[in-house]
Amino acid sequence: MDCCAHNQGLAKIFGEDNARSELKLYWKKGLDKHARAIVESLNARGVQGATVLEVGAGLGGLHLELLKRGAARATDVDVSAAYLSAAQTVSDKLGLRDRVDYRLGDFARDAAAVPNSDVVILHRVVCCYPNMTQLVTAAAEHAGRLLALSFPRGAWYMRLGEKGMNFFMRLSGSGYRFYVHPPATILATASAAGMMLVEQKFSWPWQTVIFERA
């Protein structure tokens, strides 16, 4: 899959309409249970004074929560201009805008231009990228201390859903594809980049893992 075509399809799906809809839900309910669990796991390992990098942050709720809990600064890298704009609206309203650096781009390809951080987060991002190895390796190499990933469980029903969703995407002419990368390969990729698995949770349909720098 051509990453450029995929990113164009991704930016179209996660466009202004979805951003507005998700923004309304965020102000009403806040983070969902999966995102809250990641925040709690990272906070338990210490985020005071830390720098945070969140890739594909959506509205930025995770890194904003960590800033509230003592993290120093955050970087938000997203391929969707609509979500990046919505994320800035959220940080403005919360009074945290001056502590976040917003960057539009494909992190896996542009990683060299993004500074390393103490904490790196990819929540529901691995499933949106064709080259898992490139993405996870870049994320792990940027993590000075902690790396948090969430991705679909490798169950048969998720693989079936992957085929169904991608069939629909092809019919609609979208370049976007959904990926159920093998969880064991994801874990091995992060480990090969010097990270050590310290926590693993399952919350349907997601698998969430926390790594520390080995």
Overview of this protein structure:
The chain is of the alpha/beta class and 214 residues long. It has a single domain (3-213), classed as Rossmann fold (3-Layer(aba) Sandwich). Helices cover 47% and strands 23% of the residues. Helix 2 (16-29) packs parallel to helix 5 (81-94) and helix 7 (132-142) packs across helix 9. The chain is globular, with a radius of gyration of 16 Å. The termini are far apart.
Task: List the SSEs and their pairings.
Layout: H1 3-13, H2 16-29, H3 33-44, E1 51-55, H4 61-68, E2 73-78, H5 81-94, E3 100-104, H6 107-110, E4 117-123, H7 132-142, E5 143-152, H8 156-172, H9 183-192, E6 195-203, E7 206-213
Parallel strand pairs: 1-2, 1-4, 2-3, 4-5
Antiparallel strand pairs: 5-7, 6-7
Helix pairs in contact: 2-5, 3-4, 7-9
